[in-house]
Design goal:
alpha/beta, Rossmann fold, 2 domains, 7-stranded mixed β-sheet, 15 helices
Length: 342
């Protein structure tokens, strides 16, 4: 298998972005055609809550949509109100001689566009990949077949992303890692490969725990990485670790669940322990970057979450009792935010 401290010879970031951005254009179709959002905002700039009321939308997906359109350069935010940019006014507002509505309207019945409109109005995620015969993502992970294929997908991504993050982290003083909802254990194994003093435990619910244990054994890390069966959404986290990892986990959940998870992490960590959040983060003003805003649309479609801004995450960590924030670069638009228990 690929050594977990080895980076690829070429940069796959563009390939990650092709996949992560797949649903963003469908959200533009919805905003332009089904909602006629830009015409409304050209006539009357409005705050996010007003936009949601005007179109019968819910808060979380509205946030994702407005973030995307700001990152695309189609909306601007001034004094708390969203208005159109010159390019949107000229090409996305009805009545303009350069209006592109009919060009996009021919695609308005795409299945993902229909999914996104339902998510915007109900805040209920669509099925993974728009599969109509599948359970919602979280429940589907309890089915062995789906759990195996999804975990494999996240594992192949993690081989690159884990080493890209690990090479920038200062973890020499930590001894025990708890990888919360760690999937295949690829991040726990990679961090242990980079830091010889580190041992790790992966917390995963069945049947992923068995998939994880097999993957760890195949990678030759069973002596340093163990698996504990458990649902992160139920009960307290295991104690005894001085470092907690949420890698590509919090983006699957809305703010109330994120708050709950961070509070459980704080409670289980010793004084001086730290939490590391590895994810795709928006900038502090949430006006970009575009590729993260695009990825957030995919998350909004299939999960209960979205991408968070760095400032948002620091606020949530502060509420939980953490401080002393540090940011670290990673691979393919991902990075790390680390905070210590006060």
């Amino acid at each position: 298998m690929t050594p977990l401290t080895q980076a690829p010879a070429t940069d796959p970031t563009t390939l990650y972005r092709y996949r992560d951005a797949l649903y963003a254009e469908d959200l533009l179709i919805v905003g332009l055609i089904q909602l006629d959002l830009f015409s409304g905002l050209a006539a009357e700039p409005t705050d996010a809550a007003g936009i949601a009321r005007r179109h019968g939308l819910t808060a979380r997906p509205t946030d994702v949509m407005l973030t995307l359109f700001r990152a695309m350069g189609l909306l601007e935010l001034k004094e708390g109100r969203y208005g159109v940019t010159p390019v949107a006014r000229e090409h996305l507002v009805q009545g303009s001689p350069w209006y592109l509505g009919p060009y996009y309207a021919s695609l308005k019945d795409r299945p993902v566009a229909a999914d996104l409109l339902r998510v915007l109005r109900t805040d209920r995620p669509a099925n993974w990949g728009s599969q109509t015969d599948q359970l919602d993502w979280h429940r589907a992970m309890e089915q062995p077949g789906f759990a195996q294929s999804f975990t494999a997908a996240m594992d192949c991504r993690g081989v690159f992303l884990a080493q890209a993050l690990a090479s920038h982290l200062p973890l020499e003083s930590f001894r025990s890692l708890l990888d919360i909802a760690g999937g295949s254990g690829i991040y726990a194994c990679s961090l242990c490969a980079h830091f010889p003093q580190l041992k790790a435990t992966v917390l995963e619910k069945p049947p992923v725990d068995r998939i994880c244990a097999a993957a760890i054994q195949q990678r030759g890390f069973s002596d340093r990485v163990t698996v504990v069966a458990g649902d992160m959404l139920q009960g307290e986290f295991p104690e005894g670790s001085d470092l907690h990892l949420f890698s590509n986990v919090l983006h699957d959940w809305d703010v109330p669940i994120v708050r709950e998870l961070l509070a459980r992490s704080w409670a289980a960590l010793p004084a001086g322990g730290a939490v590391l959040i590895h994810d795709a983060f928006l900038d502090r003003d949430k006006a970009g970057p575009l590729h993260v805003a695009e990825y957030s649309v995919m998350l909004m479609h299939a999960t209960q979450g979205r991408c968070y801004g760095v400032g948002e995450m620091e606020e949530l960590l502060t509420e939980a009792g953490f401080g002393d924030f540090r940011e670290f670069p990673g691979g393919a638009a991902r990075g790390g935010v680390m905070a210590w228990k006060r």
